[in-house]
Amino acid sequence: MSRLLRRLAPAAALAAGACLATSSDVDALRASVNDLKTQQARQDSAQAAQAARVAADVSAVNDSLVALNARVARMNGDVRGDLYAIGQQLIQIQELTGQSQRRLQELRASLEQRQAEAVTPSAGAPAGAAAGAAAAAAPAPAAPGATPGPAELLQLSLDQLRRGSYATARSGLTILIQQYPQSDLVPEAQFYIGEAWAKEGNAAAADSAYALVVAKYPQSSRAPTALYKRAVALEGKGNKTAARALYTQLVQQYPRSDEAALARERLRALQ
């Protein structure tokens, strides 16, 4: 029995040593696992923090984009409003300019009328040498029934136009063009012939009259206005292609005119 025990003792010692080694390895493994878990937890925490920062950055970028879009929308609205206001101001300037031109025309007509009255012989003309001296100094008297001057004709015709006597106005304007073809008021007369037709509701005749202003008097200040009126009338009829062509012609031919600014706005609206 004792002999058997002596033989088993080394084996038992080896077994005990093997059990002790296995327990140490398990502890080391557990420590390694715990370290890995700790490192993974730290990495997960760092990744979560990084993800939170990225989400915050994305949210901030989205907020910035929303604010930027809002500013762009407001700016677009402001630009459209400014363009409309500019168009209205240009129209007002045109109206004020028209009033100034009207006043100048009235003054010219008044001067022509006074000149005509000045050369008319008075009933109480002086006799003898005084009469001869007055006759020599005075211009030749106008023949009875003589046609008024161009400014007076234009003024009389515009008065008829404002009263609604469109045919009478056109008649006076036509006489002006025929009797005074070299007058600087001829383009004005041709333009207002178009205005008379337009107010009478004859769009085709008005378009033809406006077209003559552009064709025959392209350097006149009335040419861009006539061209713009033609384009607006065509756009009003739904002929956008023809209107666009005239707006383009206006911008190219009269780029510095007030009407060109209005034409550019209409071209943008027709796109």
Task: Kindly describe this structure.
By secondary structure, the chain is mainly alpha-helical. The protein has a domain of 80 residues. Helix content is 83%, strand content 0%. It is built from nine helices and no strands. Helix 3 packs antiparallel against helix 4 and helix 4 packs antiparallel against helix 5. The longest helix has 117 residues. The protein starts with a helix and ends with a helix. About 10% of the residues have low confidence.
Low-confidence sequence ranges: 119-144
Intertermini distance: 116 Å
What is the count of DSSP helices, taking H or I runs of 4+ residues? 9
Structural class: mainly alpha
Amount of beta strand: under 5%
Rg from Cα: 49 Å
Could you tell me the number of beta strands? 0
Gross morphology is: rod-shaped
Could you describe the largest sheet, including whether it forms a barrel? none
Give average pLDDT, whole number.
75
What's the helical proportion of residues? over 70%
Order of helices and strands: HHHHHHHHH
Concise synopsis of the structure shown:
With 271 residues, the chain is an all-alpha fold. It has helices at residues 2-118, 128-137, 150-163, 166-179, 186-200, 203-216, 222-236, 240-253, 258-270.
SSE layout:
Layout: H1 2-118, H2 128-137, H3 150-163, H4 166-179, H5 186-200, H6 203-216, H7 222-236, H8 240-253, H9 258-270
